[in-house]
Known about the structure:
By secondary structure, this protein is α/β, with parallel strands linked by helices.
Amino acid sequence: xxxxFSPTTTTVSxxxxxxxxxxxxTSAYMTRQVLTRLAHLWDEIVTVFANxxxxxxxxxxxxxxxxxxxxxxxxxxxxxxxxxxxxxxxHKVVNFETASRHGEPFExxxxxxxxxxxxxxxxxxxxxxxxxxxxxxxxxxxxxxxxAIGIRxxxxxxVNPKATERKIVYPLVDWFYADKQDVNDWxxxxxxxxxxxxxxxxxxxxxxxxxxxxxxxxKENAANxxxxxxxxxxxxxxxxxQEPDEAFPRTFFRGNLSTVALKAMCAEMDAPTRVADxxxxxxxxxxxxxxxxLPLFAAA
Length: 300
């Protein structure tokens, strides 16, 4: 593995550091590197994973294995939504056994804020960002901490332009040079790995995925799309710009496609058996990270 440790753009020490463990290979690699090489430079460090309820089971198993093998001591949190207006999302602490697996936190967010999509990308904000911020507040940290996010140098388009202002750091960009190949090579040497292909990602059916990826996922497990189909049927007219008498309910997928329409379209496609380059121009990598930039969408 190349190691160009060069902390030239961001401080590598301070009082409090929150490691955002998304459940993907990159964020887990970042967490491992920081905990083994830089932990002594921080007064307090906490690793947090936010479960949406629609994560692949392999993601949950991977987070658990990272704790068991590497000792991350990850705090598992889930969003707790207050349905009242102007009442922010809080959190509750769960674990591998008690973590939601049927979309419960996700449905609570949709019931208040409506269906997330390209125009309304609030799912990461409410399900991950707000829940993690609420947990940090429960520690008495306030806003006096730095958040580390697992984005690589080959994913710079995903770096938030207001990172310094928001106290966000990207260790694999700012502190250690580690691109996709470096991360994958490192995991090949470990006793376990994330048992997901890259087109699958942590979320079972993420609306950011390309049609090619959806075609593959529907072929692999169409039942995973039962949840978004039900959400559209029950909450299509929920949201600040939705009214019950509007002709068109809100939908998840690009091109304003509903889950039903997406399934029909993919059924007519010659679904590939693989994606040549899963990350190329895609709005969905292996995981969703905190404080995202606007999603980018592939043409296919």
